[in-house]
Input
Amino acid sequence: MAELREFDLPRKLLVTMYLIVLSCGFFAAHLYLHYTMAGVSGEDTFMPSLQDISIHFHGDPTKTRFKTMVLGPMKRYFMEDDAKKPVQLSPEEQKDLDAVLAWNDQGAPESGYWDPKEKAKTKDPKLVYTLLYQHNCYDCHAPDATGRSAKPDAPLNSFAAISRFTKPDSGMDKGRLLMLSHVHLLGMAMMFLGAGIALVFSSWSSRVRSALVCGGFASILIDIGGWWAVKYGGEPWAWTVILGGTLMAASFA
Ligand code: HEC
Output
């Protein structure tokens, strides 16, 4: 069978153009990874750290969407004047925020949110429903909220509604991970098939070519298998994703 260097011009062009486009795709994939994943744990690293990988797939059980928002962009609404900068809570306001967070950390039980019999009529100043009412959260977070930057699709003024945001962060959901897995398995298999065809026609020794073919395909399985291992096993498995990615980059290079 002809070797790469014996190919005629159209065949050489086919291999060359394919590899150029594939390399661009590889580069874009790495940029995408950097933008979506690296730094989610708070440190700004170029490549995702073990912790980033774990938070991405496994989640961070100490966090909930509610807690993240209340400590982040929603914190200023605990102030009397929410347009004031910088965001600086008075001791009373801080106490309310702490009480709301403590409720969240206890697993956000209904009895701490409102009196299950009174429900929306609850006036007890220690209950979360009342605290959020006093800080005007429901101006934006109610099904009928209309004002500027209101969020009627994320109501907080009933126990069922707020419960959507107080579950521990469980990372990427299974459906999305299944979707990503099948897209990547099929896509990367095609990508390595193309690169592999170019490789097997090269003049390198049979041993090197065999090793690269196995390394390339094995890296796909290690990488994607690693996602699932991290999803259920957490950070101790994150090295498999790094190993798969490194092996993939090395065989591709
Ligand atoms: C002026 C309107 C406004 C007020 C007042 C307000 N929020 Fe928000 N809230 C928003 C908007 C807009 C978003 C979406 C922001 C985003 O996704 O980055 C949001 C998002 C949230 C979310 C996440 C919702 C989701 O769909 O993931 C939570 C939880 C939340 N706010 C809690 C609060 C709490 C608690 C208060 C009261 C201390 C409050 N908000 C006051 C406008 C408001």
Notes: The mean pLDDT is 91. The two ends are 25 Å apart (CA to CA).
